[in-house]
């Protein structure tokens, strides 16, 4: 399910959110929906194919983590503008157990499940801005942004 809002909120850096769309991440079907929605948003922003793939891969990793480790959540996709550039911000929130050791979770190869352990660290490398907010027992929120030009 998608919840779209057209927004015109100025950010201190001159960044404006022009569109915000939210998607549930509670099933395998939702993971596919997220991938398609993020791909469409990257095209809408004007990203080239390589950057489209980077953003979609990051979104997929973050959504899968929220679904598997956080018991589900919500992905918000924001289309951004700032002087000289467009961009996309992904905000994934879950209400799961949180991440007890952030440093370990960001290390390649570390996993709390059956995955390869590239999710958080890989998503961080694929995006230009990355912020993780988590507390044990209080869920996790990851905010990741990529711009069309530096």
What does this entry show, briefly?
By secondary structure, the protein is an alpha+beta fold. It is built from 4 helices and 6 strands. Strands 1-2-3-4-6-5 form a 6-stranded antiparallel β-sheet, covered by helices on one side.
Structure description:
It is a single chain. This protein is α+β, with helices and mostly antiparallel strands and 150 residues long. The protein has one domain (2-147): 2-Layer Sandwich (Heat Shock Protein 90). The chain has 4 helices and 6 strands. The protein has helices spanning 28-45, 49-68, 102-105, 119-126, and strands at 2-10, 16-25, 73-82, 85-94, 129-134, 140-147. It has a 6-stranded antiparallel sheet with strand order 1-2-3-4-6-5, with helices on one face. The longest helix has 20 residues, at 49-68. It is globular. The chain starts with a strand and ends with a strand. Mean pLDDT is 84; it is low at 1-12.
Arithmetic mean of pLDDT: 84
Per the CATH scheme, the topology name is: Heat Shock Protein 90
* Low-pLDDT residue intervals, each spanning 5 or more residues: 1-12
* Count of distinct strands: 6
CATH-assigned homologous superfamily: Histidine kinase-like ATPase, C-terminal domain
- Kindly report the spatial arrangement of strands forming the biggest sheet: 1-2-3-4-6-5
Order of helices and strands: EEHHEEHHEE
Q: How far is it from the N-terminal to the C-terminal residue, by CA?
A: 32 Å
Radius of gyration (CA) equals 15 Å
Q: What portion of residues is helical?
A: 25-40%
Number of domains: 1
Outline type: globular
What is the correct CATH architecture?
A: 2-Layer Sandwich
> What profile does the largest beta sheet have?
6 strands, antiparallel
The first-level CATH class name = Alpha Beta
Number of helices: 4
SS strand fraction:
35-45%
Structural class: alpha+beta
């Amino acid at each position: 399910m998608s919840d779209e809002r057209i927004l015109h909120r100025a950010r201190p850096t001159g960044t404006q959110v022009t569109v915000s769309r939210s998607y549930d991440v509670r099933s395998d079907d939702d993971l596919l929906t997220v991938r398609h929605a993020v791909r469409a948003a990257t095209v809408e922003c004007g990203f080239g194919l390589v950057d489209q793939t980077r953003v979609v891969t990051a979104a997929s990793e973050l959504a899968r983590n929220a679904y598997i480790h956080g018991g589900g959540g919500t992905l918000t996709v924001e289309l951004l503008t700032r002087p000289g550039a467009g961009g996309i911000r992904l905000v994934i929130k879950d209400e799961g157990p949180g991440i007890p050791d952030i440093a370990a979770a960001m290390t390649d190869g570390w996993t709390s499940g059956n995955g390869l352990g590239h999710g958080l660290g890989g998503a961080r490398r694929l995006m230009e801005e990355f912020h993780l907010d988590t507390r044990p027992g209080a869920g996790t929120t990851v905010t990741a942004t990529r711009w069309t030009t530096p």
